[in-house]
Structure prediction request, 263 residues.
Amino acid sequence: MMLSEQVATPPAFVRLTAHPLRWQLLTALANSDYRVRELVTLLGQPQNLVSYHLRLLRAGGLVTATRSSFDGRDSYYHLDLDRCAAALGETGAALHPALRQDAASPILPVGQQRAVAIAVLFVCTGNSARSPIAEALLRHHTAGSVTVTSAGSRPKPHLHPNTLRALREGFGIDITGQQPRHLDTLASRRFDHVITLCDKAREACPEFPRHPRRVHWSIPDPATASGTDQAGYPAFQHTAADLDTRVRHLLPVLASTPPSPDR
Prediction:
C-alpha cells in the first residue's frame, strides 16, 4: 500500500530544523538573543550562510528579530520557544495521534528544597520598567525560592507608573515602594545568572565574581512609547507579557543549575 503524498511529506518543522546549521542556530538562540556577527563567531560559519538560514527560520516563524537599541545597524535574533513547542506538538500529532500535545510542555518549577537559593540579576538601563518587571515575575513564579535582584546602568529616580500598573493589573503583583538601584551597588555580589534586557545595558554590564552565566534578552524599552502614560500603557502590557513568557521558560534552566559550593 502506497502512502499518500501528504502523509509521506515530513511536517514543516522537521524540514526546517533538520538542516545541521539551522539546528545549531536554534540551539544557540535557545540560550540567549544574539546578533548575526556573534552567531557567526559561535558557529564558525560565513556570515552570508548564517544570514541565509536565519531568514529561513524567520520565515518559518521560529525566530524573530528586533532592531538593536544600542546600534540601529544591528538586529538581535530571538527564538520563539512557544512557537517551537506548538510546532513540536503538531509534528508529533502528524506521526501518530497518541503523540498529540494539547498544550506546550509543562514548565518545571524551581525546587523548593534547595539548601542554597539560585541568585539571578536582571539588568536594564533605567531599572524602572523592564528589569523590575522581570524581577517581580521571577519572584512570583518561584514563590521566593530564587534570590532575584534588578539594577540599572543609569537608574531612573523612580519606577515608571506603568510598571506598577502592568504588574498589578496583569499579574496581581504590587511592588509599590521599590526604588531603582545602580549596578555599582552590586559589584561585590555573587550571582548564578546575569540577564541583560537592554541592548545598551548589555554593553555597560560589568563582570561579576565567580563568572555567572550571562544571557541577553533584547527587549525594547516600553517607556519610549510616545504620548501620555495612558497612551503608552499598552507597550508596558506587551513588555510584561513578553517577559512573563521568557521568565517561565527560564524556570527549568534555573532548576537544573548546580548548587554553588562557595555561596
Summary: Residues 10-99 form a domain with the Arc Repressor Mutant, subunit A fold (CATH 1.10.10.10). The two ends are 64 Å apart (CA to CA). The first strand starts at residue 63 and ends at 67. The beta strands are 63-67, 75-79, 119-124, 147-152, 193-196, 213-216.
